[in-house]
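Researcher: Next entry: non-specific serine/threonine protein kinase (Rhododendron griersonianum).
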Amino acid sequence: MKSGDPCWDAIRRARSADPSLGGLRVICQLGSGDIGNVYLVELKHAGGCVFAAKVMDKKELEGRDKERRARTERGIMELLDHPFMPTLYATLDS
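Model: Predicted structure:
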């Protein structure tokens, strides 16, 4: 987590207030793929911090034997730290 990054600070505040990240407001769908849909979301009380949120259905992943692929994708995203690659700010498992 980078210090001074307003997006990291907004996520930290949101997670401490609501660990389920229920403070997200969906703006629109950006796309869909084999294992999920991606939405443009905004933190309701974060002053304009927008993020892309990927939503995956656990039952569908299990039924199509895609759980390993989802875990691999998450693991790779957790390792990335490059200005030209997406940043994984948080994950939620429900």
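Model: Note for the record: Residues 21 and 63 are 26 Å apart (CA to CA).
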